[in-house]
C-alpha cells in the first residue's frame, strides 16, 4: 500500500486502474487506495514483466551504468526517477578482488514515507543486476533534508514546477 509500504493481497477479479507504469513497476488504484505492483508480479494484472536491459547489452561496467540503473527506479507516487528527483546524495564504487562494491546514500521526499525501504531495495536489486557488481549497500539518510530545489530541471518540468 502506498505510502505506508504495507503489503496487501489483491483478490482476483478486483478492478484496478493503473496510474503509473514506470521502471517495470505499476502503481494502481484499487478500492480508493493506491498500491504498487512490482515487475515480478505483473502477471497479476495480466501483463508480462518488463525486462531491464541486461548489463551485457549495456556494455562494460562503468559508473554511468549504475546511474542509468538508478534512473529506472521510481517513487510510486511521483512519475520521475529517483536520480532526477535528487534523492541520490552519494555514490561510491570500490574495486574488490573480482567485482565492484557500490555504496549509495539516498533520501526520500518525506521522512515518514513508508515506501523508503521498498524504493531503496529496488535500487539495490537493480544495481546488483549489473555485471561486475558484487555487493551493494543503500543507506537512507535524512541530512540534508530533501527539497524541490534538488530536482533536475527535467523533473521540475515533468511535474509542472517550471
Automatic annotation (TrEMBL):
Domain MIP18 family-like: residue ranges: 64-138
NCBIfam families per the UniProt record, alphabetical: FeS_long_SufT
The protein's name: MIP18 family-like domain-containing protein
Source organism per UniProt: marine metagenome
